[in-house]
Amino acid sequence: RYPFLQGNRKTLADEYEYVMQGKLFKISEGSKRDPKAEVNASFGGLLMMLKGEASQFKNFELDQRMFLLIRKL
Question: Which GO terms describe its molecular function (predicted)?
Fold first, then answer.
């Protein structure tokens, strides 16, 4: 683990084991047959798909930048 110093102050990234920045590239609305919506993001080639209720994704937009913060439990 490498410390991430932003002007000699602690950041949210210091609390996690791994941090990645990505971009949202696809949003799929649910249908009557399958009411689950999907959001797809790319983190430098590592792809992530989130599936859930469409209401949970209402604030997401295409080309939105996002961070993935991972911590060991």
Answer: DNA-directed RNA polymerase activity
Concatenate the DSSP letters of all residues of 11-72 into one string.
-GGGGSSEEEEEEEEEEE---SS--EEEEEEEETTEEEEEEEEGGGGTT--TT-EEEEEE--
Provide the pLDDT confidence category of residue 4 given band limits of 50, 70 and 90.
low
What sign results for the dihedral spanned by CA atoms 7, 63, 20, 45? negative
pLDDT at 21: 93
Domain containing residue 52:
12-70
| pTM of the complete model | 0.74
Which domain CATH number covers 47? Answer: 2.40.50.140
